[in-house]
Input
Amino acid sequence: MEPVVVLKNFSCRYRKKKDPVISDLSLEIQPNSIVQLSGINGSGKSTLLHVLADIIPTNLDFTADQISITGSTCIVFQDPSLQLLTFSVKEEIAMKLGFKRVKRTTRQKHVNEILSEFGIEKLKDKDPHQISSGEQQLVVILSNIIEQSSIILLDEPFTYLDQHNIEILIEYLLELKSQGYTIIIASHLSLGDDLIDQYVELPNSIKFEDDLPKLSWKPDTGSSNYKIDGKIGYKDPIAQIAYDFAAHGIYMVKGPNGSGKTCLLLSLAKMIEMGDGDLEMPEDSIFIPQRVSYFFTEATVRQELGALEIPAKLQPYLDYSPFQLSVGLQKLLAIYIGLSNFTVCLIDEPFQSLDQAAIKFILDLLIEFKWSKLIVFSSNRDLSRLGLEIPIITLGVN
Output
């Protein structure tokens, strides 16, 4: 069987960067297979997917003895909000079928079937710009998969999904494979041989062998300096919450997609108004979003850091624009700046899109600052492997 993707001695480098992103990569990908691209933050996973999709950045130079792609491709970017084009979920999923002149009644039938399969019928008439990041990611993936391109390129497709939706998506990808599709996934997760047929480790990757530090903290009995007591939500209430916080320490908010984790952090940051209730939080707070590219205002990493001590992890990137960094490195930079400068740090999904070395960097920061800051972070994943022993606020449980 002839491969559908062939690369021979592929190398690429962004202009104004000294070192190549990818050096001398050769690979062949067979049809009807699921392939995982793995590598450290900044190793070129997203760049490679963009090249395969023929979406080549204007500042990227590359050379190769051969680049051969047989079949049509579609790509789902790491940030789902970049691909939202309509004002209802049903229109978003049906849109690409419309491009192919599929009849409206047939489009509606396909949309209803796929919404039902994933258990998200309740989102049908909602504006995709106003649902949770996890729900956005699922909608964008479904709207691209329904296009029926023969090669599906997924950049960190599980980043914003809770465990339930990860499992549903994995089953769906296996079904697509059985129908003849080829799927290429860039992911930091260990996806396992039940899903993955071929692993591609990018050449600049290194193995991380250090043990992760243990993050533990508990408030003193009776210590309560700040509190929230009321309804949280955007237009409509999502959840009712009552919780007390110590002046310094670390708390985790967990729950499934759409349970109100981000909404709670925004409420604590006083960036959205609560319903009836009380909120007592200091003004010196910062909300660090999942999409941290919105966080940056300066031309270089060095300027973003200002007078802060420069971590070794960021030293090689000081003269880069923050917008040239990988999503994982952007997250490290934003979290470091936030923890260094503010009394209260509200961090939305700090461990998403990170390799093991980056996770250790974040854990070290949290351990360092937990005695001098109030830190509240969210997660839609089971983080038991990190050995966390901290107070947990659970949303979305009846």
The longest helix spans residues 163-178. DSSP finds nine helices and 17 strands in the chain. The chain has two domains: 5-201, 226-394.
